[in-house]
């Protein structure tokens, strides 16, 4: 076959393709009506290239946004440590009082100290289990889960819901579970002692003490950090009355207080309110004041949940103004704090920034955020809010969770991932990461489900590898054989 025939069939390039050409301006791809975001490296607006997500109206971040300017000018998350300047001497004296702690026995890592305390609310026993299919999770397993979480340092643990059992079968045993829990409601427990040993000491590894240690400033951990709370969800007056009746029966038998905290919830959108609460949004809001007033009169503190703060599975993008309207109503009713829930898990740092900015503009002191981890941006979204005074985070062991009325909400942000990231950045939680990882792997095994925490899987794998190596070294030692270094690094986490 001739060369010309090969060229015509596309087997050889055309001679003109080898001729140098003057540089030309690259052709821009056609713009489609998709969501617009601001680039963190350029002041120009870009459009998302993915064709897989439905465009959501009203999701353009205003160019004048305070958060946009901060992210563009810094490029990194600001340090959690106090600013020095005139406070250098005070800061240095604090560091001298600090204790040292390893982030994990299985990691050689380094972090700066001096960070704020971030409270973790563990939701695996309620939100994590409520959406599981199949047979009900045994009540005894839930009891053991709560006890293991307490040993890991969690002190705020959601334990159940007083809802109709035919609507949420996994929560039907909440009245049986509460009396089985340790009678610690309102009491203060000491936080776990920091990890103090490792197979090889820092000196033996040749990396120096600071390569393994996480500096803890105990003066930054509030006295209330050890106080135990077992919140339960009460959707309406009937749910609260069922809790009150259970408490009366328990007290008549000589028992103490089962819980000192209840939670009410409401959607930021009308469509989700109809699906989740089976009632219009206005009716739900008007029904809550008597519930909150009665709970507070009996000594319960009340938290408020607002769901669908980023998007709604039925109506699309949620205007931040609507979110703040509902949150303000709950605060005015007497809720001591608000949990903002990204129910669909579609939030990202920029959309969360829009909600947070609206909260600040309306004068709200928001201290709580809950993220479902459907699209794996929950952790980055939470970290982006830390410089803006985020103080509490809702998370779930092993990433368990999801909402029965939000199709595709596949999980919560894993507590292990949150705690690891916070400790790595120098923040404090009062939680022992190794015990937490052990708890997550235990629960995943009991439920026969994949552990969705990447940190949990990685640390657990390294622990197993170390134990296998130690057993091998022990056998070699009996034979007079050699030994291995057994060093792990944080690369590839």
Automatic annotation (TrEMBL):
Chain segments carrying region Disordered: 1-86, 178-209, 465-493
Domain Pyruvate carboxyltransferase: residue ranges: 118-437
SUPFAM superfamilies for the chain: Aldolase (SSF51569)
EC nos: 4.1.3.4
Biased segments, Low complexity type: 178-190
Pathway(s) per entry: Metabolic intermediate metabolism; (S)-3-hydroxy-3-methylglutaryl-CoA degradation; acetoacetate from (S)-3-hydroxy-3-methylglutaryl-CoA: step 1/1
Ranges of biased composition (kind: Polar residues): 37-47
GO molecular function: hydroxymethylglutaryl-CoA lyase activity; metal ion binding
Biased composition (Basic and acidic residues): 465-478
Keywords, ordered alphabetically: Lyase, Metal-binding
Gene3D superfamilies hit by this protein: Aldolase class I
Superkingdom of origin organism: Eukaryota
Reactions this protein catalyses: (3S)-3-hydroxy-3-methylglutaryl-CoA = acetoacetate + acetyl-CoA
GO biological process, one term: L-leucine catabolic process
Top-tier EC class: lyase
Stored PROSITE patterns: PYR_CT (PS50991)
Stated family: Belongs to the HMG-CoA lyase family.
Protein's UniProt name: hydroxymethylglutaryl-CoA lyase
Organism: Kwoniella bestiolae CBS 10118
């Amino acid at each position: 076959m001739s060369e010309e025939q090969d060229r015509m069939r596309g087997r050889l390039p055309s001679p003109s393709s080898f001729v140098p050409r003057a540089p030309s301006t690259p052709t821009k791809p056609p713009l489609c009506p998709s969501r617009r975001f601001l680039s963190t490296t350029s002041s120009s607006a870009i459009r998302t290239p993915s064709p897989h997500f439905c465009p959501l109206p009203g999701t353009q971040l205003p160019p004048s946004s305070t958060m946009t300017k901060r992210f563009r000018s810094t490029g990194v998350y600001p340090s959690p440590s106090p600013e020095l300047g005139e406070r250098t001497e005070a800061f240095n004296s604090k560091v001298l009082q600090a204790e040292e702690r390893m982030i994990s026995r299985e990691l050689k890592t380094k972090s700066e100290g001096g960070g704020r305390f971030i409270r973790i609310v563990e939701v695996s026993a309620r939100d994590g289990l409520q959406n599981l299919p199949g047979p009900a999770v045994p009540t005894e397993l839930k009891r053991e889960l709560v006890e293991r979480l307490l040993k890991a340092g969690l002190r705020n643990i959601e334990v159940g819901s007083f809802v109709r059992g035919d609507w949420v079968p996994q929560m039907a045993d909440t009245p049986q579970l509460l009396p089985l829990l340790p009678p610690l409601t309102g009491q203060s427990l000491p936080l776990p002692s920091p990890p103090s040993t490792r197979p090889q000491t820092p000196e033996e590894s040749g990396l120096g003490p600071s390569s393994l240690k996480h500096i803890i400033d105990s003066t930054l951990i509030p006295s209330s950090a050890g106080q135990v709370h077992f919140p339960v969800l009460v959707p309406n007056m009937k749910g609260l009355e069922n809790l009150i009746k259970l408490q009366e029966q328990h007290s008549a038998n000589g028992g103490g207080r089962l819980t000192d905290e209840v939670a009410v919830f409401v959607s930021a959108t009308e469509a989700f309110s109809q699906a989740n609460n089976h009632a219009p949004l206005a009716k739900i809001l008007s029904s809550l004041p008597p519930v909150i007033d009665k709970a507070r009169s009996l000594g319960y503190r009340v938290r408020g949940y607002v769901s669908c703060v980023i998007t709604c599975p039925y109506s699309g993008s949620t205007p931040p103004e609507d979110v703040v309207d509902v949150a303000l109503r709950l605060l005015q009713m007497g809720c001591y704090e608000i949990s903002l829930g990204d129910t669909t898990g579609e939030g990202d740092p920029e959309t969360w920034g829009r909600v947070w900015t609206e909260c600040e503009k309306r004068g709200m002191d928001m201290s709580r955020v809950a993220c479902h981890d459907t699209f794996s941006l929950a952790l980055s979204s939470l970290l982006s809010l830390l410089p803006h005074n985020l103080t509490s985070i809702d998370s779930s062991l092993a990433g368990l969770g999801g909402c029965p009325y939000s199709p595709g909400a596949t999980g919560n942000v894993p507590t292990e991932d949150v705690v690891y990231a916070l400790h790595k950045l120098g923040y404090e939680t009062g939680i022992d990461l190794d015990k937490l990882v052990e708890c997550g792997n235990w629960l995943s095994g009991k439920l026969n489900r994949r552990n969705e925490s990447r940190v949990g899987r990685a640390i657990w794998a390294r622990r197993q590898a170390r134990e296998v190596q130690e057993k091998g070294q022990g056998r070699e030692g009996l034979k007079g054989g050699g030994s291995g270094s057994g060093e792990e690094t944080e690369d590839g986490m």
